[in-house]
Amino acid sequence: MHIRHIFVLVTGALALLIISCGSVEEQINQKAAAARAATPPTPPDGMAVFRQYCVVCHGADGKLGLNGAKDLSVSALTLEERLNIITNGKKLMTPFNEVLSPEEIKAVAEYTLTLKK
């Protein structure tokens, strides 16, 4: 009988330990989620995205014109028109709506405005 009592006590103590660890982990996860929600997301770097996806045809300065790419340094397109073309493509230009997030597309469009003379 003595061994049974010890076994029951040890089993109960282990059960309480497991339950308390789960709630501590849950509290940590909740605090981490709250911290993420409180921190505003960093906006995408338009220049970095441009260099990764656009420089091949447009060049670093926007003037390359490879594969029919327009010279961005003289483009008169508005921000909205640029957003549309980057999102949906035009002629040989690839549509980036499935490659880039809307935030990245906006960042690239805004960056291309800085390439104008």
Span of the ends, CA to CA: 91 Å
Strand fraction = under 5%
User: Which class best fits the helix and strand makeup?
Assistant: mainly alpha
Radius of gyration: 28 Å
**Percent range for helical residues?**
55-70%
Largest sheet: none
- Which outline best applies? rod-shaped
Mean pLDDT: 86
- Give the oligomer, counting copies of the same chain as homo and different chains as hetero: single chain
Series of H and E elements: HHHHH
Tally of strands: 0
Number of alpha- plus pi-helical segments: 5
Low-confidence stretches are none
Characterization of the model:
The chain is 61% helix and 0% strand. By secondary structure, the chain is mainly α. Helix 2 packs across helix 5 (102-113) and helix 4 packs across helix 5. The longest helix is centred in the N-terminal third of the chain and has 37 residues, at 2-38.
